[in-house]
Amino acid sequence: MSEVLEKPTTQTAVAKPLVMLRDLSVRFVSRDATMHAVNGVDLDLAAGEVLCILGESGSGKSVTLRALMKLLPRTARVTGRIEVAGRDVQAMNERELQDFRGSDVAMIFQEPMTALDPVFTIGQQIAETVVRHEGVTRAAGMARALELLELVQIPSAKRRLAAYPHELSGGLRQRAMIAVALACRPKLLLADEPTTALDATVQIQVLLLLRKLQEQLGMGVIFVTHDLGVAGEIADRVAVMYAGRVVEEGPVAAMMRAPLHPYPRGLLGATVHGGMRGQRLTTIPGAPPSLETLPTACSFAPRCAEAEPACLAGVPAPRSPVPGRSARCIRVAESGV
Amino acid sequence: MTLSPVPDRGGPAQPLLLLSGLKKHFPIRGGLFGATVATVRAVDGVTFAVRKGETLGIVGESGCGKSTTARLLMRLMEPDAGRMIFDGEGVGQDAQTGGITLKEYRRQVQMVFQDSYASLNPRLPIEESIAFAPKVHGIAPAEARARAHELLAAVGLAPATFARRYPHELSGGQRQRVNIARALALQPRLILLDEPVSALDKSVEAQVLNLLVDLKEKFGLTYVFISHDLNVVQYISDRVLVMYLGQVVEQGPVEAIYDRPAHPYTRALLASRPSMDPGARRTEPPLTGDPPNPINPPSGCRFRTRCPFAEAVCAEREPVASDLGGGHEAACHMAEPGSGHSQAGRLAA
Ligand SMILES: Nc1ncnc2c1ncn2[C@@H]1O[C@H](COP(=O)(O)OP(=O)(O)OP(=O)(O)O)[C@@H](O)[C@H]1O
Ligand SMILES: Nc1ncnc2c1ncn2[C@@H]1O[C@H](COP(=O)(O)OP(=O)(O)O)[C@@H](O)[C@H]1O
Ligand code: SF4
Ligand code: SF4
Ligand SMILES: [Mg+2]
Ligand SMILES: [Mg+2]
Q: Would the CA dihedral through B289, B290, B293, B299 be positive or negative?
């Protein structure tokens, strides 16, 4: 592997988080409704760490991710503080954003064609990104493109430089999109369900590839998924979202062994896995709330078997029974600090 | 007139549905005159039986022919070759020649799709969608509506609240319940479910799976359950059929398939499941590459381009299904004694 792609050696002395979200809220305001998509999210990501945001559809995962790159539409009202690599994302102007996207942070998606341009070859797309961000020659850009295709384990990489996206199979297209995202060695990779549409045997290949690249390049990764198994395979830490809030956060193994909050506990029980044959599945009754009004109590209360009147008194604050884990539930004990 | 449940004819040992040698090839047209330039071998010689009262799971990766098999099974399209026998009667033949007409067959076999909008009319309240087919079959409107309400209650939707709602006024899980009620309206014997829970969130998926288990019991149904989710198929199925590139590579009782998978593809597919245990992460993927294109499938065994055990014979001859005992069979040269593979017969019964 060439030195251009190696782990960046510049390590800041103080362990300042790579990503810092404080009280992030996003509303979508239209003439006839307001959608409270994200309602006060605090998250930290250390350099070189993999955080999975886990949650059901509509819980605010993608909106949170897009806010980190300032990629939300004009109808979005964003409040709170978003810091990536020490830079205030909210304060960036268009020029700064251009530079920021690609070199500090890059994003991959479920559908690779949202990120790839159908009329340019894979080689052209990578080279063009490198030339634009780093001012190198076209030839150097193409050389980097070849290295990247090899890095993401695309077979016959040299030949594939000249391929158009539609000429690649689903798994290869996903790899090509990852190569484009890595073109300028981002410190932070944002991944929005990148393996959800893939077949089982291809999904595991892409997950293992991402994990390996993340270690090799020392990137921080925020990986959105609704699949507990995927989180188990790739995450260091997990943040579980429900109705626009993080209801539980902590190391993946601890969370999957014994969730603190009733919602992830229910989710774990409802997720079918081996050895459940013949058993009745535990379910969470009902469905997530509409986000047209801002929840003023625990949003999970209508579906929660453990709810009590105090749950409706206000939005539960995060409680931390052990260092490194927290949950927004009044039944979780606060450790004696 | 009321629709009465269809009595069993052939007895418990007679498969409810038998498909044999089913083929469906799609021509790809191109060029100036629309000449056929290639052929997609979507379903290429598929044989299996659905037993009375069972749930048969069908798994396989995208494009392996699951939905095409489903459309053939429903007779939404005509097969290019093959035979279908429903409870001892040839499907699509008339009664004089010992057959069952397509009209009668379509009453007894119903389908639920992944896309919960697909089979509901967006301009009709859901009770009308459920009552529609019975009315076509001559049931009086008032009776059809009463029956629709019963079915809504059976799928867990209170008729007083839901009967007059339109599809867009329901959540995905509720719409899927309506689709299940609609599929039950003609009192079918077989329900084909093509990825019925794949678009649902996990907490809702579990509700619908519990419901399917209850309804099967209550109405004495037989299911064919298609899914790419190996865990869900293991949970719900009695027997499982594994497809690869338009063919069945392995089938058998669910325990045999999941505990003793014989075909190298089945083994790799099962090993590809995320582990649910962050302490036991895999480091190497079980397979490399994507499934090849069904337009030009590899010669001999179609899995040989990805199979770690492939040998010369695998390129030369197509493996046939070999019996591994207890209704478990696999189409691999390693399962066939004397096939010429160096490990031939190693897996045999
Ligand atoms: N009408 C058609 N014309 C041409 N090719 C078709 C047609 N219908 C299906 N195919 C092809 O036949 C193959 C099998 O398709 P099918 O829909 O049965 O796959 P599947 O197993 O259901 O996949 P998935 O898991 O993605 O639903 C695919 O390669 C598909 O592209
Ligand atoms: N551009 C938009 N305009 C209006 N509402 C939106 C927009 N994008 C997302 N939403 C709403 O915000 C909520 C959270 O969405 P999202 O973050 O995409 O959920 P997910 O957790 O499935 O990724 C949903 O209710 C969604 O409908
Ligand atoms: S705060 Fe109350 S309602 Fe909310 S999750 Fe905890 S126990 Fe349930
Ligand atoms: S027949 Fe040969 S290539 Fe096919 S699965 Fe068996 S060993 Fe592998
Ligand atoms: Mg999303
Ligand atoms: Mg399909």
A: positive
Confidence of residue B245 (pLDDT cuts 50, 70, 90): very high
- The CATH number assigned to the domain holding B177 equals 3.40.50.300
Residues of A with Cβ-Cβ distance to B287 under 8 angstroms? 201, 205
Say whether residue B205 is in contact with chain A using an 8 A CB cutoff.
Answer: yes
Q: Are residue B330 and residue B205 in the same domain, yes or no?
A: no
- Please give the distance, rounded to the nearest whole angstrom, from the Cα atom of residue B123 to the centre of ligand 6: 26
Query: Is the CB of A200 less than 8 angstroms away from the CB of B62?
Result: no
3-state secondary structure of A115: coil
Are residues B229 and B281 located together in one domain of the fold?
no
Q: Are residues B274 and B150 in the same domain?
A: no
Mutate to test the pocket of ligand 4, among B248, B269, B301 (most ligand atoms within 8 A of CB): B301
For residue A58 and ligand 2, the question of a CB distance below 6 A is answered with yes
Work out the pLDDT band at A190, boundaries 50, 70, 90.
very high
Residue B219 contacts residue B46 (beta carbons within 8 Å): no
Cβ contact B272–A201 (<8 Å): yes
Q: Which of A56, A169, A256 is facing B203, going by the closest CB pair?
A: A56
Q: Say how many domains are in chain B.
A: 2
Within-domain flag for B5: no
Among candidate residues B244, B273, B296, the one where a domain is terminated: B244
Q: Among partner residues A204, A232, A284, which is closest to B285 by beta-carbon distance?
A: A204
B218 and B280, same domain (yes or no): no
C-alpha to C-alpha distance for B298 and B295, rounded to whole angstroms: 10
Question: For B326-346, what is the mean pLDDT?
Answer: 92
Q: How many CB pairs under 8 A join A and B?
A: 120
pLDDT at A1 over 50: no
Task: Give the E-state strand segments of chain A in sequence order.
Answer: 19-29, 34-45, 50-54, 76-84, 87-88, 105-108, 188-192, 220-225, 237-242, 245-251, 326-327
In this structure, are B166 and B270 located in the same domain?
no
Is A227 touching B (CB cutoff 8 A)? yes
Residue B348, CB half-sphere, CA atoms under 13 Å: how many? 13
b/e B35-60 (16+ beta carbons within 10 angstroms → b): eeeeebbbbbebebbbbbbbbbbbbb
Is the same domain home to B108 and B215? yes
Same domain as B104, residue B73: yes
Would residue B240 count as lying in a domain? yes
The verdict on B137 and B239 lying in the same domain is yes
ipTM value: 0.87
Chain B nearest-CA residue for A56: B201
Given a contact cutoff of 8 angstroms between Cβ atoms, the answer to whether A322 and A335 are in contact is: yes
For chain A, the domains span: 112-185
Mean pLDDT of A127-148: 93
Inside any domain, residue B252: no
The range of the structural domain enclosing residue B214 comes to 17-244
Least confident piece of the model among A82-96, B264-278, B279-293: B279-293
pLDDT at B237 over 90: yes
Whether A60 has its CB under 8 Å from any CB of chain B: the answer is no
Ligand 1 and B65: CB distance under 6 A: yes
